[in-house]
Amino acid sequence: MLIKCTIDGVGQLLNVSADKPLSKILQEKIEDFPTNSACHGAMCGNCAVLLNGECVLSCLVPAYRLNNAVILTIEGFRRTRPCHDIERAYTETGIRPCEQCYASKTLMIEGVLNRMDINNTRNNVLDKALIAREMGMNSCRCLEMRQIETVIRVALKNRRNRIAKK
Ligand code: FES
């Protein structure tokens, strides 16, 4: 089937079988897409991407769901301002994922931020169930949940400040 989508800001017209996993498509299209994403849904988390702003495991997403989708791998996400909100939070807190899971945890944190009400500055309560669910897609235990919550809290502050300055 023919699929029209955007990968890391570049429009693509793909001719692929309907059930081909997005992870396989990305391995063919993106030079740096992790080749250690091979557990196929067992939650290594290495294949995480943003699909229309939601963090997903690309090995579980069949091609037929991709028409008109906006897909960001860590390579594309790194070039965006939202990524800088998270990067600054890593620097400000001194808390950073290990090299192995940096890409997937960063995209999962963005997935959490995208589900939060950024505009409601009175609501600073973190949804711990949401965070546990999103971050649970990655099996690396380099950070404790309270450290991840700290990063999310600071990244949220950075994002709100940036948007308020616009
Ligand atoms: S390849 Fe491991 S979760 Fe997708």
Describe the secondary-structure layout.
Blueprint: E1 2-7, E2 10-15, H1 22-29, E3 48-51, E4 54-57, E5 70-72, H2 74-77, H3 81-93, H4 102-115, H5 128-135, H6 145-165
Parallel strand pairs: 1-5
Antiparallel strand pairs: 1-2, 3-4, 3-5
Helix pairs in contact: 3-6, 4-5
This protein binds FE2/S2 (inorganic) cluster.
Estimate the helix proportion, in percent. Answer: 40-55%
Q: Radius of gyration, rounded?
A: 16 Å
Main sheet, how many strands, which sense, barrel?
5 strands, mixed
Apparent shape: globular
| Domain tally | 2
Bound small molecules, by name, code or SMILES, are: FE2/S2 (inorganic) cluster
Strand content: 5-15%
If strands are numbered along the chain, what order do they take across the biggest sheet?
Answer: 2-1-5-3-4
Order of SSEs, N→C?
EEHEEEHHHHH
Annotation, overall tally of beta strands? 5
Detail the poorly predicted runs: none
| Arithmetic mean of pLDDT | 92
Helical element count?
Answer: 6
Distance, first to last CA? 41 Å
Structural class category: alpha+beta
Report a brief summary of the structure.
41% of the residues lie in helices and 14% in strands. The chain is built from six helices and five strands, in the order E-E-H-E-E-E-H-H-H-H-H. FE2/S2 (inorganic) cluster binds next to loops.
Q: What are the main properties of this structure?
A:
166 residues, alpha+beta, Ubiquitin-like (UB roll), 2 domains, five-stranded mixed sheet, binds FE2/S2 (inorganic) cluster
Q: Can you walk through the features of this model?
A:
The protein is an alpha+beta fold and 166 residues long. It has two domains: 2-77, Ubiquitin-like (UB roll) (Roll), CATH 3.10.20.30; 81-165. The protein contains six helices and five strands. The chain has helices at 22-29, 74-77, 81-93, 102-115, 128-135, 145-165; strands at 2-7, 10-15, 48-51, 54-57, 70-72. It has a five-stranded mixed β-sheet with strand order 2-1-5-3-4. Strand 1 and strand 2 (10-15) form a beta hairpin. Helix 3 crosses helix 6 and helix 4 packs antiparallel against helix 5. The N and C termini lie far apart (41 Å). Residues 23, 37-47, 57, 59 line the site of FE2/S2 (inorganic) cluster (FES). FE2/S2 (inorganic) cluster (FES) is lined by residues 23, 37-47, 57, 59.
